[in-house]
Amino acid sequence: MTHDLASIKKEHTMTAANDLAQVAKERGIRYFMVSFTDLFGYQRAKLVPATAIADIQKDGAGFAGFATWFDMTPAHPDMLGMPDPTGLIQLPWKPEVAWVPADCVMEGKPVAQAPRVVLKDVVARAAQKGVRVKTGVECEFFLISPDGKLLADEHDTASKPCYDQLAITRRYDLISEICDYMYQLGWEPYQNDHEDANGQFEMNWIFDDAVLTADRHAFFKYMVRALAEKHGMRATFMPKPFPTLTGNGCHAHISGWDVATGKTNNFYDESDEIGLSKVGYNFLGGIMQHAEALAAITNPTVNSYKRINAPRTASGATWSPNSVTWTGNNRTHMVRVPGKGRFELRLPDGAANPYLMQAIIVAAGVDGIERNAHPGKRLDIDMYQEGHTVKDAPKLPLNLLDAIRAFDKDTTLKQALGNEFSSAYIKLKNSEWNSFATHFTQWERDHTLDI
Ligand SMILES: [Mg+2]
Question: If you placed Cys at 358, which of 81, 138, 210, 265 could pair as Cys (CB 3.0 to 4.6 Å)?
Fold first, then answer.
Protein backbone atom coordinates (compact mmCIF):
# COMPACT_ATOMS: atom_id res chain seq x y z
CA MET A 1 0.00 0.00 0.00
CA THR A 2 1.34 3.39 -0.93
CA HIS A 3 -1.19 5.03 1.30
CA ASP A 4 -0.27 4.31 4.90
CA LEU A 5 -1.46 5.89 8.12
CA ALA A 6 1.41 8.37 8.10
CA SER A 7 0.37 9.66 4.69
CA ILE A 8 -3.27 9.93 5.78
CA LYS A 9 -2.16 11.91 8.84
CA LYS A 10 0.11 14.08 6.69
CA GLU A 11 -2.78 14.88 4.38
CA HIS A 12 -4.99 15.70 7.31
CA THR A 13 -2.25 17.74 9.00
CA MET A 14 -3.63 20.44 11.20
CA THR A 15 -3.18 23.87 9.72
CA ALA A 16 -5.20 26.93 10.64
CA ALA A 17 -7.47 26.22 7.67
CA ASN A 18 -7.77 22.54 8.58
CA ASP A 19 -8.35 22.88 12.32
CA LEU A 20 -11.99 21.83 12.46
CA ALA A 21 -12.65 23.37 15.89
CA GLN A 22 -11.34 26.67 14.55
CA VAL A 23 -13.32 26.30 11.30
CA ALA A 24 -16.44 25.68 13.40
CA LYS A 25 -15.94 28.96 15.27
CA GLU A 26 -15.25 30.95 12.11
CA ARG A 27 -18.15 29.55 10.10
CA GLY A 28 -20.78 29.04 12.80
CA ILE A 29 -20.75 25.23 12.51
CA ARG A 30 -22.51 23.46 15.39
CA TYR A 31 -22.26 19.87 14.14
CA PHE A 32 -19.98 17.82 11.89
CA MET A 33 -21.33 14.90 9.89
CA VAL A 34 -18.23 12.66 9.92
CA SER A 35 -19.05 10.41 6.99
CA PHE A 36 -17.69 7.38 5.18
CA THR A 37 -19.00 5.29 2.31
CA ASP A 38 -19.08 1.51 2.76
CA LEU A 39 -18.51 -1.21 0.15
CA PHE A 40 -22.10 -1.12 -1.09
CA GLY A 41 -22.09 2.68 -1.41
CA TYR A 42 -24.14 3.44 1.69
CA GLN A 43 -23.06 6.59 3.48
CA ARG A 44 -22.59 6.24 7.22
CA ALA A 45 -21.98 9.08 9.62
CA LYS A 46 -21.63 10.25 13.17
CA LEU A 47 -23.05 13.62 13.99
CA VAL A 48 -20.36 15.18 16.17
CA PRO A 49 -20.97 18.43 18.09
CA ALA A 50 -18.40 21.13 17.38
CA THR A 51 -17.44 21.08 21.05
CA ALA A 52 -16.05 17.54 20.59
CA ILE A 53 -14.58 17.81 17.09
CA ALA A 54 -11.00 18.55 18.20
CA ASP A 55 -10.74 15.11 19.85
CA ILE A 56 -12.45 13.38 16.93
CA GLN A 57 -10.07 15.06 14.50
CA LYS A 58 -7.15 13.69 16.51
CA ASP A 59 -8.48 10.22 17.37
CA GLY A 60 -11.27 9.55 14.84
CA ALA A 61 -14.98 8.74 15.24
CA GLY A 62 -15.64 5.12 16.26
CA PHE A 63 -17.78 2.72 14.19
CA ALA A 64 -18.55 -1.00 14.34
CA GLY A 65 -17.54 -2.08 10.82
CA PHE A 66 -19.70 -5.22 10.92
CA ALA A 67 -22.80 -3.07 11.36
CA THR A 68 -22.14 -1.63 7.88
CA TRP A 69 -21.26 -3.26 4.54
CA PHE A 70 -17.70 -4.28 5.28
CA ASP A 71 -16.24 -7.76 5.50
CA MET A 72 -15.81 -7.64 9.27
CA THR A 73 -17.15 -9.50 12.27
CA PRO A 74 -18.75 -8.20 15.48
CA ALA A 75 -15.45 -9.09 17.20
CA HIS A 76 -13.43 -6.58 15.16
CA PRO A 77 -12.05 -3.58 17.07
CA ASP A 78 -13.42 -0.10 16.49
CA MET A 79 -13.06 1.29 13.01
CA LEU A 80 -12.15 4.95 13.27
CA GLY A 81 -13.30 7.55 10.78
CA MET A 82 -10.55 10.17 10.51
CA PRO A 83 -12.19 13.32 9.12
CA ASP A 84 -10.39 14.78 6.09
CA PRO A 85 -10.80 18.55 6.46
CA THR A 86 -9.83 19.14 2.82
CA GLY A 87 -13.15 17.54 1.81
CA LEU A 88 -15.36 19.57 4.17
CA ILE A 89 -18.69 20.79 2.78
CA GLN A 90 -20.93 23.02 4.87
CA LEU A 91 -24.54 22.05 4.15
CA PRO A 92 -25.84 25.01 2.14
CA TRP A 93 -29.40 24.33 3.31
CA LYS A 94 -28.32 24.02 6.96
CA PRO A 95 -25.01 25.83 7.39
CA GLU A 96 -24.75 24.90 11.08
CA VAL A 97 -23.88 21.37 9.87
CA ALA A 98 -20.72 20.45 7.92
CA TRP A 99 -20.25 17.14 6.08
CA VAL A 100 -16.70 15.89 6.18
CA PRO A 101 -15.50 12.70 4.46
CA ALA A 102 -13.51 10.31 6.63
CA ASP A 103 -10.71 7.88 5.87
CA CYS A 104 -11.19 4.67 7.86
CA VAL A 105 -8.44 3.42 10.16
CA MET A 106 -8.26 0.35 12.42
CA GLU A 107 -5.56 -0.42 14.97
CA GLY A 108 -3.28 2.22 13.53
CA LYS A 109 -3.62 1.13 9.91
CA PRO A 110 -5.79 2.37 7.04
CA VAL A 111 -8.70 0.00 6.39
CA ALA A 112 -7.65 -1.43 3.02
CA GLN A 113 -11.24 -2.32 2.04
CA ALA A 114 -12.60 1.20 2.70
CA PRO A 115 -13.58 2.75 -0.67
CA ARG A 116 -12.06 6.20 -0.11
CA VAL A 117 -8.79 4.59 1.01
CA VAL A 118 -8.86 2.33 -2.08
CA LEU A 119 -9.37 5.31 -4.39
CA LYS A 120 -6.60 7.37 -2.80
CA ASP A 121 -4.20 4.43 -3.18
CA VAL A 122 -5.04 3.94 -6.84
CA VAL A 123 -4.73 7.68 -7.51
CA ALA A 124 -1.36 7.86 -5.71
CA ARG A 125 0.01 4.96 -7.74
CA ALA A 126 -1.31 6.46 -10.98
CA ALA A 127 0.50 9.70 -10.12
CA GLN A 128 3.76 7.77 -9.69
CA LYS A 129 3.22 6.59 -13.24
CA GLY A 130 2.58 10.10 -14.54
CA VAL A 131 -1.23 9.95 -14.81
CA ARG A 132 -3.64 12.35 -13.13
CA VAL A 133 -7.16 11.39 -14.01
CA LYS A 134 -9.95 13.95 -14.00
CA THR A 135 -13.56 12.94 -14.38
CA GLY A 136 -17.01 14.38 -14.52
CA VAL A 137 -20.04 12.31 -13.58
CA GLU A 138 -23.56 12.67 -14.97
CA CYS A 139 -25.88 11.64 -12.17
CA GLU A 140 -29.41 10.71 -13.19
CA PHE A 141 -32.20 10.24 -10.68
CA PHE A 142 -35.98 9.89 -10.44
CA LEU A 143 -38.24 11.99 -8.26
CA ILE A 144 -40.84 9.65 -6.84
CA SER A 145 -43.54 9.49 -4.16
CA PRO A 146 -42.34 9.06 -0.56
CA ASP A 147 -43.54 5.43 -0.54
CA GLY A 148 -41.33 4.74 -3.59
CA LYS A 149 -44.15 3.38 -5.74
CA LEU A 150 -45.14 6.19 -8.10
CA LEU A 151 -43.56 9.09 -9.94
CA ALA A 152 -43.84 12.27 -7.89
CA ASP A 153 -45.38 14.12 -10.84
CA GLU A 154 -48.54 12.38 -12.02
CA HIS A 155 -48.72 14.66 -15.07
CA ASP A 156 -45.27 13.58 -16.31
CA THR A 157 -46.57 11.03 -18.82
CA ALA A 158 -45.23 12.08 -22.25
CA SER A 159 -44.04 9.25 -24.47
CA LYS A 160 -40.86 11.22 -25.27
CA PRO A 161 -40.31 13.16 -22.05
CA CYS A 162 -36.62 14.06 -22.55
CA TYR A 163 -35.91 17.80 -22.03
CA ASP A 164 -39.61 18.32 -21.21
CA GLN A 165 -39.81 22.03 -20.49
CA LEU A 166 -43.09 22.00 -18.59
CA ALA A 167 -42.14 18.99 -16.46
CA ILE A 168 -38.87 20.59 -15.34
CA THR A 169 -40.77 23.80 -14.64
CA ARG A 170 -42.98 21.88 -12.20
CA ARG A 171 -39.80 20.85 -10.37
CA TYR A 172 -38.17 24.28 -10.58
CA ASP A 173 -38.18 24.89 -6.81
CA LEU A 174 -36.19 21.75 -6.04
CA ILE A 175 -33.87 21.71 -9.08
CA SER A 176 -32.97 25.40 -8.80
CA GLU A 177 -32.38 25.04 -5.06
CA ILE A 178 -29.88 22.21 -5.63
CA CYS A 179 -28.25 24.03 -8.55
CA ASP A 180 -27.89 27.25 -6.51
CA TYR A 181 -26.22 25.25 -3.75
CA MET A 182 -23.77 23.65 -6.18
CA TYR A 183 -22.92 27.15 -7.39
CA GLN A 184 -22.37 28.37 -3.81
CA LEU A 185 -20.10 25.39 -3.18
CA GLY A 186 -17.95 26.29 -6.20
CA TRP A 187 -18.80 23.20 -8.25
CA GLU A 188 -19.56 25.29 -11.33
CA PRO A 189 -22.90 23.71 -12.28
CA TYR A 190 -23.74 24.32 -15.93
CA GLN A 191 -27.00 22.59 -16.89
CA ASN A 192 -30.02 20.69 -15.58
CA ASP A 193 -32.51 18.72 -17.60
CA HIS A 194 -35.50 16.44 -17.56
CA GLU A 195 -34.08 13.13 -18.72
CA ASP A 196 -35.36 10.41 -21.01
CA ALA A 197 -37.71 8.71 -18.52
CA ASN A 198 -40.84 10.20 -17.00
CA GLY A 199 -39.90 11.61 -13.62
CA GLN A 200 -36.14 11.50 -14.36
CA PHE A 201 -33.66 14.37 -14.07
CA GLU A 202 -29.94 15.04 -14.49
CA MET A 203 -27.82 17.85 -13.09
CA ASN A 204 -24.28 18.58 -14.25
CA TRP A 205 -21.30 20.25 -12.63
CA ILE A 206 -17.75 20.60 -13.87
CA PHE A 207 -15.20 17.74 -13.91
CA ASP A 208 -12.18 17.63 -11.58
CA ASP A 209 -9.63 15.29 -9.95
CA ALA A 210 -10.97 11.78 -9.27
CA VAL A 211 -11.01 12.05 -5.45
CA LEU A 212 -12.67 15.47 -5.49
CA THR A 213 -15.28 14.29 -7.99
CA ALA A 214 -15.93 11.20 -5.85
CA ASP A 215 -16.47 13.34 -2.72
CA ARG A 216 -18.80 15.63 -4.65
CA HIS A 217 -20.62 12.68 -6.18
CA ALA A 218 -21.19 11.18 -2.70
CA PHE A 219 -22.35 14.53 -1.35
CA PHE A 220 -24.56 15.16 -4.40
CA LYS A 221 -26.49 11.93 -3.80
CA TYR A 222 -26.94 12.87 -0.15
CA MET A 223 -27.99 16.43 -1.01
CA VAL A 224 -30.50 15.41 -3.69
CA ARG A 225 -32.13 12.84 -1.44
CA ALA A 226 -32.22 15.15 1.60
CA LEU A 227 -33.70 18.06 -0.38
CA ALA A 228 -36.21 15.88 -2.24
CA GLU A 229 -37.49 14.79 1.20
CA LYS A 230 -37.69 18.41 2.28
CA HIS A 231 -39.90 19.07 -0.76
CA GLY A 232 -42.20 16.12 0.09
CA MET A 233 -40.74 13.72 -2.48
CA ARG A 234 -38.14 11.00 -2.64
CA ALA A 235 -35.16 10.81 -5.01
CA THR A 236 -33.78 7.49 -6.25
CA PHE A 237 -30.59 6.68 -8.13
CA MET A 238 -31.64 3.00 -8.47
CA PRO A 239 -30.43 1.75 -11.87
CA LYS A 240 -33.87 0.62 -13.12
CA PRO A 241 -36.68 1.60 -10.75
CA PHE A 242 -39.44 1.23 -13.36
CA PRO A 243 -39.40 -1.73 -15.79
CA THR A 244 -40.53 0.11 -18.93
CA LEU A 245 -38.67 3.40 -18.41
CA THR A 246 -35.06 4.33 -19.17
CA GLY A 247 -32.78 3.60 -16.20
CA ASN A 248 -30.48 5.82 -14.14
CA GLY A 249 -27.02 6.03 -15.68
CA CYS A 250 -23.96 7.65 -14.21
CA HIS A 251 -21.85 8.35 -17.28
CA ALA A 252 -18.23 9.30 -16.61
CA HIS A 253 -16.24 11.73 -18.77
CA ILE A 254 -12.58 10.86 -18.46
CA SER A 255 -9.33 12.67 -19.26
CA GLY A 256 -5.71 12.36 -18.10
CA TRP A 257 -3.60 15.37 -17.13
CA ASP A 258 -0.02 16.18 -16.18
CA VAL A 259 0.59 15.27 -12.55
CA ALA A 260 2.43 18.39 -11.42
CA THR A 261 0.02 21.14 -12.49
CA GLY A 262 -3.09 19.38 -13.77
CA LYS A 263 -3.16 21.97 -16.56
CA THR A 264 -2.14 19.93 -19.61
CA ASN A 265 -4.56 17.33 -20.91
CA ASN A 266 -2.35 14.45 -22.03
CA PHE A 267 -5.29 12.71 -23.70
CA TYR A 268 -5.58 15.56 -26.21
CA ASP A 269 -4.03 15.40 -29.65
CA GLU A 270 -5.14 17.96 -32.18
CA SER A 271 -3.73 15.96 -35.07
CA ASP A 272 -5.78 12.84 -34.34
CA GLU A 273 -9.03 12.34 -36.24
CA ILE A 274 -11.14 12.34 -33.05
CA GLY A 275 -8.68 14.27 -30.90
CA LEU A 276 -7.25 11.49 -28.71
CA SER A 277 -3.54 11.08 -28.01
CA LYS A 278 -1.69 7.77 -27.89
CA VAL A 279 -1.85 7.73 -24.09
CA GLY A 280 -5.58 8.47 -24.33
CA TYR A 281 -6.08 5.51 -26.67
CA ASN A 282 -4.04 3.27 -24.36
CA PHE A 283 -6.09 4.32 -21.32
CA LEU A 284 -9.25 3.63 -23.32
CA GLY A 285 -7.72 0.29 -24.33
CA GLY A 286 -7.45 -0.61 -20.64
CA ILE A 287 -11.10 0.26 -20.06
CA MET A 288 -12.21 -1.82 -23.05
CA GLN A 289 -10.09 -4.83 -22.12
CA HIS A 290 -11.23 -4.85 -18.49
CA ALA A 291 -14.87 -3.92 -19.21
CA GLU A 292 -16.52 -7.14 -18.07
CA ALA A 293 -14.73 -6.99 -14.70
CA LEU A 294 -15.36 -3.25 -14.47
CA ALA A 295 -19.11 -3.93 -14.47
CA ALA A 296 -18.87 -5.59 -11.03
CA ILE A 297 -18.09 -2.13 -9.64
CA THR A 298 -19.79 0.23 -12.11
CA ASN A 299 -22.99 -1.87 -12.14
CA PRO A 300 -22.93 -3.27 -8.63
CA THR A 301 -26.49 -4.44 -7.95
CA VAL A 302 -28.84 -7.19 -9.11
CA ASN A 303 -31.03 -4.43 -10.54
CA SER A 304 -28.14 -2.92 -12.56
CA TYR A 305 -28.52 -5.68 -15.16
CA LYS A 306 -32.09 -4.64 -15.87
CA ARG A 307 -30.62 -1.37 -17.19
CA ILE A 308 -27.80 -2.74 -19.35
CA ASN A 309 -28.93 -5.48 -21.71
CA ALA A 310 -32.45 -4.01 -21.45
CA PRO A 311 -35.18 -4.26 -24.05
CA ARG A 312 -36.25 -0.99 -25.67
CA THR A 313 -37.97 1.34 -23.21
CA ALA A 314 -41.17 3.38 -23.62
CA SER A 315 -39.16 6.35 -24.98
CA GLY A 316 -37.75 4.23 -27.82
CA ALA A 317 -34.17 3.59 -26.59
CA THR A 318 -32.47 2.34 -23.42
CA TRP A 319 -29.49 4.72 -23.74
CA SER A 320 -27.38 2.03 -22.11
CA PRO A 321 -24.88 -0.40 -23.65
CA ASN A 322 -24.95 -4.18 -23.89
CA SER A 323 -21.62 -4.80 -25.67
CA VAL A 324 -18.03 -3.73 -25.23
CA THR A 325 -17.71 -1.31 -28.15
CA TRP A 326 -16.55 2.28 -28.67
CA THR A 327 -17.18 5.01 -31.19
CA GLY A 328 -17.04 8.74 -31.96
CA ASN A 329 -19.96 10.99 -31.09
CA ASN A 330 -22.67 8.29 -30.97
CA ARG A 331 -24.57 7.34 -27.82
CA THR A 332 -25.33 3.73 -28.70
CA HIS A 333 -21.93 2.33 -27.58
CA MET A 334 -20.29 1.64 -24.22
CA VAL A 335 -17.74 4.37 -24.89
CA ARG A 336 -18.32 7.55 -26.86
CA VAL A 337 -15.71 10.15 -27.76
CA PRO A 338 -17.89 13.27 -27.74
CA GLY A 339 -15.07 15.80 -27.97
CA LYS A 340 -11.32 16.05 -28.26
CA GLY A 341 -9.16 14.92 -25.35
CA ARG A 342 -11.75 12.96 -23.38
CA PHE A 343 -14.12 10.06 -23.65
CA GLU A 344 -17.41 9.11 -22.04
CA LEU A 345 -17.89 5.76 -20.35
CA ARG A 346 -21.63 5.05 -20.48
CA LEU A 347 -21.48 1.86 -18.45
CA PRO A 348 -21.82 3.04 -14.80
CA ASP A 349 -25.25 3.35 -13.24
CA GLY A 350 -26.77 5.25 -10.36
CA ALA A 351 -25.87 2.51 -7.86
CA ALA A 352 -22.12 2.80 -8.54
CA ASN A 353 -20.10 3.59 -5.42
CA PRO A 354 -18.68 7.10 -6.07
CA TYR A 355 -15.21 6.09 -4.82
CA LEU A 356 -14.92 2.57 -6.22
CA MET A 357 -16.19 3.67 -9.61
CA GLN A 358 -13.36 6.20 -9.93
CA ALA A 359 -10.85 3.71 -8.53
CA ILE A 360 -11.59 0.99 -11.05
CA ILE A 361 -11.65 3.43 -13.98
CA VAL A 362 -8.21 4.76 -13.02
CA ALA A 363 -6.85 1.25 -12.35
CA ALA A 364 -8.07 -0.16 -15.68
CA GLY A 365 -6.85 2.85 -17.65
CA VAL A 366 -3.41 2.93 -16.06
CA ASP A 367 -3.02 -0.78 -16.80
CA GLY A 368 -3.90 0.02 -20.41
CA ILE A 369 -1.16 2.66 -20.53
CA GLU A 370 1.38 0.28 -19.00
CA ARG A 371 0.56 -2.47 -21.48
CA ASN A 372 0.24 -0.16 -24.47
CA ALA A 373 -3.31 -1.50 -24.89
CA HIS A 374 -5.25 -0.83 -28.06
CA PRO A 375 -8.98 -0.15 -27.66
CA GLY A 376 -9.82 -2.21 -30.74
CA LYS A 377 -11.67 -1.05 -33.82
CA ARG A 378 -13.83 2.03 -33.62
CA LEU A 379 -17.35 1.14 -34.70
CA ASP A 380 -19.31 3.92 -36.34
CA ILE A 381 -22.65 2.17 -36.44
CA ASP A 382 -25.97 2.44 -34.60
CA MET A 383 -25.62 -0.35 -32.04
CA TYR A 384 -29.35 -0.32 -31.27
CA GLN A 385 -30.17 -1.11 -34.92
CA GLU A 386 -27.08 -2.91 -36.16
CA GLY A 387 -25.59 -4.38 -32.99
CA HIS A 388 -26.46 -7.90 -34.14
CA THR A 389 -24.02 -7.52 -37.06
CA VAL A 390 -21.08 -7.15 -34.65
CA LYS A 391 -19.89 -10.67 -34.00
CA ASP A 392 -16.57 -10.18 -32.25
CA ALA A 393 -17.40 -7.65 -29.51
CA PRO A 394 -17.66 -9.12 -26.01
CA LYS A 395 -21.10 -8.84 -24.42
CA LEU A 396 -21.38 -7.15 -21.06
CA PRO A 397 -22.22 -9.49 -18.14
CA LEU A 398 -25.87 -10.54 -18.12
CA ASN A 399 -26.20 -10.43 -14.36
CA LEU A 400 -24.38 -9.53 -11.16
CA LEU A 401 -23.02 -13.04 -10.68
CA ASP A 402 -21.34 -13.03 -14.12
CA ALA A 403 -19.85 -9.62 -13.35
CA ILE A 404 -18.50 -10.73 -9.97
CA ARG A 405 -16.98 -13.80 -11.61
CA ALA A 406 -15.37 -11.64 -14.31
CA PHE A 407 -13.91 -9.37 -11.61
CA ASP A 408 -12.70 -12.41 -9.64
CA LYS A 409 -10.84 -13.64 -12.74
CA ASP A 410 -9.21 -10.25 -13.37
CA THR A 411 -6.12 -10.54 -11.18
CA THR A 412 -4.67 -7.29 -12.52
CA LEU A 413 -7.64 -5.23 -11.38
CA LYS A 414 -7.96 -7.13 -8.11
CA GLN A 415 -4.34 -6.35 -7.30
CA ALA A 416 -4.65 -2.74 -8.40
CA LEU A 417 -7.59 -2.22 -6.03
CA GLY A 418 -5.85 -4.23 -3.34
CA ASN A 419 -6.39 -7.91 -2.61
CA GLU A 420 -7.95 -7.21 0.78
CA PHE A 421 -10.54 -4.93 -0.78
CA SER A 422 -11.17 -7.26 -3.71
CA SER A 423 -11.76 -10.39 -1.66
CA ALA A 424 -14.02 -8.47 0.76
CA TYR A 425 -16.03 -7.04 -2.12
CA ILE A 426 -16.38 -10.37 -3.92
CA LYS A 427 -17.42 -12.11 -0.70
CA LEU A 428 -20.14 -9.58 0.19
CA LYS A 429 -21.43 -9.33 -3.38
CA ASN A 430 -21.60 -13.12 -3.66
CA SER A 431 -23.69 -13.24 -0.51
CA GLU A 432 -25.93 -10.51 -1.93
CA TRP A 433 -26.38 -12.62 -5.06
CA ASN A 434 -27.15 -15.70 -2.98
CA SER A 435 -29.75 -13.75 -1.06
CA PHE A 436 -31.36 -12.72 -4.35
CA ALA A 437 -31.23 -16.29 -5.67
CA THR A 438 -33.39 -17.49 -2.77
CA HIS A 439 -36.06 -14.95 -3.72
CA PHE A 440 -39.06 -16.70 -5.24
CA THR A 441 -40.50 -14.88 -8.26
CA GLN A 442 -43.88 -14.79 -9.98
CA TRP A 443 -42.03 -15.42 -13.26
CA GLU A 444 -41.06 -18.88 -12.01
CA ARG A 445 -44.65 -19.73 -11.18
CA ASP A 446 -45.92 -18.39 -14.50
CA HIS A 447 -43.38 -20.40 -16.48
CA THR A 448 -43.14 -23.56 -14.41
CA LEU A 449 -46.45 -24.32 -12.72
CA ASP A 450 -47.78 -26.56 -15.49
CA ILE A 451 -44.54 -28.12 -16.61
MG1 LIG B 1 -28.15 11.54 -19.16
Answer: 210
Work out the pLDDT band at 408, boundaries 50, 70, 90: very high
Examine the domain organization and report whether 394 and 317 are in the same domain: yes
Residues 223 and 96 in one domain: no
If asked whether residues 392 and 265 sit together in one domain, one would say: yes
Provide the pLDDT for residue 2.
Answer: 57
pLDDT value at residue 87:
96
CATH of the domain at 93: 3.10.20.70
195 Cα: distance to centroid of ligand 1 (angstroms): 6
Distance 81 CA to ligand 1 centre (A): 34
* 151 and 145 Cβ atoms separated by less than 8 Å: yes
DSSP 21-46: HHHHHHHT--EEEEEEE-TTS-EEEE
CA–centroid distance, residue 246 to ligand 1 (Å): 10
| pLDDT digit string, tens, across residues 145-155 | 999 999 999 99
Query: In angstroms, what is the span from residue 237 Cα to ligand 1's centroid?
Result: 12
Using a 10 angstrom Cβ sphere, with 0-12 exposed, 13-18 middle and 19 or more buried, the burial of residue 231 is middle
Domain that holds residue 425: 122-443
CATH number at residue 361: 3.30.590.10
The pTM score is 0.96
Distance 158 CA to ligand 1 centre (A): 17
Q: How far is the CA of 388 from the centre of ligand 1 (A)?
A: 25
CA of 202 to the centre of ligand 1 (A): 6
Distance 87 CA to ligand 1 centre (A): 26
Contact 85, 101 (CB under 8 A): no
322 and 386 share one domain: yes
